[in-house]
Give the backbone structure.
Amino acid sequence: MAGSIISLIFVLIYFLPSIWAARHHHKDATWIFAVNLLLGWTLAGWIVAIVWANKEKPIEEEDKTLKKCPRCAEFIKKEATKCRFCGHEFANTSN
């Protein structure tokens, strides 16, 4: 029992860069997973993956062509008058 808990903790730590990238919707999450899987066993590969996973800016800072829907918090195009996710209609298009 203790051995399986220790193994689980090791796997979670090993794949921490991939988990972080997926959780934060990193645009290169697949590549980070590949580096993590193939080179994570080396300390250098793991460090590269964790730094890369933390490198991306939040979408609202990176892409000024998007706005956040106040109802569902998904990002949509600034010109949109209706959210494609929840159907929320905007009063004006300058949000």
About this structure: The mean pLDDT is 87. The longest helix spans residues 2-14.
